[in-house]
Design a protein that fits this description.
Blueprint lengths: L2 H21 L8 E6 L2 E6 L2 E2 L9 E2 L2 H12 L11 H11 L6 H13 L11 H10 L1 H11 L16 H12 L3 H14 L3 H7 L5 H8 L1 H10 L3 H24 L9 H4 L2
Antiparallel strand pairs: 1-2, 2-3, 2-4
Helix pairs in contact: 3-8, 4-7, 4-8, 6-9, 8-9, 8-12, 10-12
Pfam families: ATP12
Family: Belongs to the ATP12 family.
Main location: mitochondrion
């Protein structure tokens, strides 16, 4: 499916979810519970199962993820704030597959972040930033390369930033062995950091979520040290990145080992 079309459809579904909650801007429920069923756990509000934007039951495959999602709903105050419900958003996407995408196509889309990875696009000036990137990014790239046994290209020339086909092939094989839930968790983390490598490295606990967010914002952080911080804008963006990266990584770990019968539109399982 065309990438722009996919993004458009996903945005429409996200807006539908937001519109649904806006219709219930005030918290309309008292109790949030988990209901064990054959395929996992249903998230319920006052004994009624929450529905996804496409009208499917909000059914998660394991209890830890169910508790975390239920807690997002439980923590809502008098108003429902979707910006602090990242696990629910990822669940909706994983359940609905709103773009009607195959597993292979989704993985290929994730690999686009590898081709244009934030930490592989080096600056050629100023000297302080070049040195900072070498000090902070290069060890992460080296560790990632060694982990997968691949070559990773990093350069200051956008025209030369093309990753080797063999590296892409090995990474695709790795992702294709993950279940649907893990893939959507990583996809969300990659989208918020504009990096393939950073969420993958965090998933292996080599660096923390906070460190990964810092590395994804290295040029911004460098500018802040030089020119000062626009406190509200920068901190809000940083907080949002931290929340969604952490959610994606939690999603990945909570669902590890889950056997998934999802048929990916009967194309690729």
């Amino acid at each position: 499916m065309d990438v722009l079309k996919s993004k458009f459809i996903c945005q429409v579904v996200a807006k539908r979810f937001t519109s649904y909650l806006r219709a219930h801007k005030k918290r309309f429920y008292k109790e949030v519970t988990l209901k064990p069923v054959q395929d996992g756990f249903l998230i319920q509000l006052d004994k009624r199962t929450i529905k996804t934007p496409l009208g499917k039951p909000l059914l998660v495959p394991c209890e830890p993820l169910g508790i975390a999602v239920a807690n997002e709903w439980h923590m809502q105050d008098s108003d429902i704030n979707t910006s602090v419900m990242p696990l629910t958003v990822i669940c909706n996407t994983a359940i609905d597959n709103p773009c009607s995408i195959t597993k292979s196509d989704l993985v290929n889309g994730m690999l686009r972040y590898f081709q244009t990875d934030t930490i592989c696009a080096l600056a050629d000036q100023p000297e302080e930033l070049v040195e900072l990137q070498a000090r902070e990014w290069v060890p992460i790239i080296n560790w990632f390369s060694k982990w997968h046994g691949i070559s990773v290209v990093s350069t200051s020339s956008l025209f030369e930033l093309k990753q080797p086909d063999l590296s892409i092939s090995k990474l695709k094989d790795h992702l294709m062995n993950l279940n649907r839930w893990q893939i959507y968790g990583l996809q969300s983390a990659m989208e918020i950091t504009k990096s393939f490598i950073l969420p993958m490295v965090v998933s292996q606990k080599y660096i923390s979520v906070e460190k990964a967010v810092y590395l994804s914002r290295l040029e911004v952080e460098h500018q802040i040290t030089k020119w000062g911080n626009v406190e509200f804008a920068h901190e809000l963006e940083k907080q949002n990145q931290t929340i969604f990266l952490a959610a994606g990584i939690l999603f990945y770990h909570f669902t590890a080992g889950i056997h998934d019968s999802f048929e990916w539109n009967n194309k690729i399982s």
